[in-house]
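Quick check before the chapter quiz. The format below is the same one you will see on the exam, so make sure you can read both the input and the output lines.
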Amino acid sequence: MTYFAHHRSQTELVLSGLQGLTPGALLATFRSWNDARITRNALNALSDRELSDIGLARSDIDAVANRNS
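Here is the expected output.
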């Protein structure tokens, strides 16, 4: 049995999703991504105790960052 797997790089996937966007929509997408990145970095800088104090676990960080973007 032969298996064929076609893997597209992350960059190809991102760029294909941005194809056809207006400059305003492209800027909004970038800002949303950047806001999520900043949130993720800020939460990752907190200790487990600090995250617990605000009701989060380390496993919640991606969901919180993506929800607010």
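If your answer matched, good. Residues 23-44 form the longest helix (22 residues).
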